[in-house]
Amino acid sequence: MVGKIVEVEAYRGSDDPASHAFRGLTPRNAPMFGEPGRAYVYFTYGNHYCLNITTRESGIPGAVLIRAIEPIEGISAMVRLRPKVPKLALTNGPGKLTKALRIDKSLNEIDMTKHGPLYVTKAEAGDFEVGRSTRIGIAAGKDRLWRFYVFGNPYVSQRQTAEGLQRPRLGRKEPERVI
DNA sequence: TCGAAGATTCTA
DNA sequence: AGAATCTTCGAA
Known about the structure:
The protein has helices spanning 75-81, 94-100, and strands at 2-11, 39-44, 48-54, 63-73, 120-122, 130-133, 147-150, 166-169, 176-178. By secondary structure, it is mainly beta. It has one domain (2-178): Methylpurine-DNA glycosylase (MPG) (3-methyladenine DNA Glycosylase, Chain A, Roll). Strands 1, 2, 3, 4, 5, 6, 7, 8 and 9 form a 9-stranded antiparallel beta sheet that branches. The radius of gyration is 15 Å and the shape is globular. The protein binds a DNA duplex through β2, β3 and α2.
């Protein structure tokens, strides 16, 4: 299965009250303090896994939550994992995409920079614009515009009207693929 | 050991 | 708008 990442949120450490790492190292958030480029998978609300990719050097907490992807290959397999769900809703949320890609805690801490069961890689992509807004589903840290998404992409999660929404800016970066 | 909250989703 | 559902963490 292959998808293009179209929506992410950034989380940091003691300077970010919305982050799992805000109060320091715990067993759950340990990957955020570890090597960059690893998966940080956590379970929440009794039902859902969420996938992050760690971003900062060892000892400094940081991760990017993958909130939505655009399905590219293996769509029938994704539908099998999320039966009776229309294509547009297959992977447009952090808990939805982990289910559609069968991502769970067994992939926690996996190296996502190398070819393996779950990894990211650069791919061709035309020009696109990046929208940004406040992060979704958080109680603190609402002042930061740390949610980023491909502007106008229909596979972005349905809450683009979150407060703090800004019109597209930032540049043309190649999006990446998840497998 | 216990209670409350949670980087969500689905249904009514 | 509210329930579901259970892990995690901090406080007691």
